[in-house]
Amino acid sequence: MDSLGLRERKKRQTRQALSWAALRLAVERGLDNVLVEDIAAEAGVSTRTFNNYFSSKAEAISSRHLDRMRTVSDALRARPPDEPLWTALTHAALAPFEDDHPTPDADWQAGVKLMLSEPALVGEFLRANALADRELAAAIAERTGTDPKHDLYPRLVAAAVGAATNIANEHWLNADPPVSLTGLLRDALQQVAAGLPPPPST
Q: 85 with 143: CB under 8 angstroms?
């Protein structure tokens, strides 16, 4: 059992190393100037190993975003069962960004900008978002006793959390001066949880 756990951890580490190498090289050189062979060499593995994990450069790059968002589903399942749903969701949504600082990480910021602007990556990024929403809806359904195949509620909530996360990311990318991503995300989720009341008139 321990051996299986070690193998799974090594596989996860290899997958993450390949994804990060793909993202870093694409930012440095431009996506069209990066080959699968370059990514594999950067991660210290063979091209065959790359192909065992990913079908394309785009999938490798976007998987880093998907892994972050899957952390949200795992974190929600770990929250106390008697905790109010939106409190639990806020804690879970912040879990991937626990190390966030007021000054955004330049490498990750450049990577997110690339995923949102490079046409060859946008489709894979949207696919990653859809997968993340589906997994979060399943976690919400477990917590609320609903069925994501028949009930609107878990999918609506997951979509709202996903939208809040994406919008907070966009604000974070464009903020000048830099602001905390976690602060933006917490504010976005609080507004959604409150039913998005109109802002006070000025």
A: yes
What pLDDT, on the 0 to 100 scale, is given for residue 101?
Answer: 42
Distances in Å between the Cα of 49 and the Cα atoms of 75, 102, 110 are: 30, 37, 26
Ranges of H-type helices in 32-175: 36-43, 47-53, 57-78, 85-94, 106-117, 119-144, 152-174
| Distance, CA of 177 to CA of 163 (rounded, Å) | 23
What's the half-sphere exposure (Cβ side, CA atoms, 13 Å) at 121?
23
Distances, alpha carbon 188 to alpha carbons 83, 171, 196, in Å: 20, 11, 9
| Full set of structural domains in the chain with CATH | 58-193 (1.10.357.10)
Tell me if the pTM is above 0.85.
no
CA atoms within 13 A on the CB side of 149: 0
**Residue 78 pLDDT class (50, 70, 90 cuts):** very high
Residue with tokens 């793909």: 22
Residue 113 has pLDDT above 80, yes or no: no
